[in-house]
Write a structure and sequence with these properties.
Order of helices and strands: HEEEHEHEHHHEHEHEEHH
CATH class: Alpha Beta
Strand content: 15-25%
Structural class: alpha/beta
Number of strands: 9
Number of helices: 10
CATH superfamily: P-loop containing nucleotide triphosphate hydrolases
Shape: globular
């Protein structure tokens, strides 16, 4: 193994500052068809961290997100919220925003009504929610498209609506499952920049699933590299580069060095995943 990869594998994630926001302890997940998606995975996510889960297809990245969100139960292990042990788990799940790979918008509803949906499900009237919905749309630069329907929006704009919908409940933890994978490179770069601006402004914790080494390094202060068969953590890499990040960071030697380290760790994880 090269020195750069060894450095990646031995790096420590940034200090979270006190108790983690959420802890996964000895998590395993076996599906009904016998597929072992995760085995004995333990992971602490610190407050205000931007954590990318990077790994080959089938290594359980999306399964980790769904377990954190309460959308699926582990076969073994526990999910705990140590920083706020006095509050019920259901409360924590209400503090989670989830952005899927596809925008999953209601085609018959305007951008406004799509963003309003989580509040509507909580019984919040449209008139009461108006200011909050418009603020969420403004966060993603779509306040002028509140009455537009999904068919009238580009792919990037649809994803912005999906992000606004995830933000409408003011989540403490934002889970993102390859949200920009289907977008062209220019749109993807722009949304990466916008996401970082929102993260720095509002201080969320973000867990971001991606297949892209370049995207993970640009966005994250921590990259968790996963291996498959079974899904497990292979490396935990700290991206110790300052924010804000912009095009000059993408062109820097520092960025290239981190990309080489992350790429080396990913290739080693893929070799470990091979049958």
């Amino acid at each position: 193994m090269s020195a750069s990869v060894a450095g990646a594998l031995s790096s420590s994630p940034p200090a979270a500052g006190g108790a983690p926001l959420v802890s996964l302890t000895s998590i395993s997940k076996t599906f009904s068809n016998g597929t072992v998606a995760l085995r004995d995975l333990s992971l602490d996510i610190g407050e205000r961290q931007f954590v990318s889960l990077l790994g080959p297809s089938g290594c359980g990245k999306s399964t980790v997100l769904r377990i954190i969100a309460g959308l699926g139960d582990p076969t073994a292990g526990t999910v705990t919220w140590p920083a706020s042990a006095d509050r019920a788990a259901s409360r924590h799940q209400r503090e989670i925003g989830f952005v899927f790979q596809e925008p999953t918008l209601m085609p018959w509803a305007t951008a406004f009504n799509n963003v309003w949906l989580p509040l509507r499900l909580r019984g919040v009237a449209k008139t009461t929610a108006r200011d909050q919905v418009m603020e969420a749309l403004q966060m993603v630069g779509l306040e002028k498209f509140a009455e537009a329907y999904p068919r009238e929006l580009s792919g990037g704009m649809k994803m912005r609506v999906s992000i606004a919908r995830a933000l409408i409940t003011r989540p403490k933890l934002l889970l993102m499952d390859e949200p920009f994978a289907a977008l062209d490179e220019i749109t993807r770069f722009k949304l990466n920049d916008d996401l970082l601006h929102l993260w720095e402004t509002f201080g969320w914790t973000v867990v971001f699933v991606t297949h892209s080494v370049f995207e993970s390094v640009y966005l994250s202060n921590r990259i968790v590299v996963m291996a498959a068969r079974p899904g497990r953590i292979f490396a935990d890499l700290a991206v110790d580069a300052p924010y804000p990040r912009d095009e000059s960071f993408r062109m820097s030697e520092t960025y290239n060095d981190f990309c080489r380290q992350a790429s080396g760790a990913l290739h080693a994880a893929m070799e470990a995943s091979a049958p």
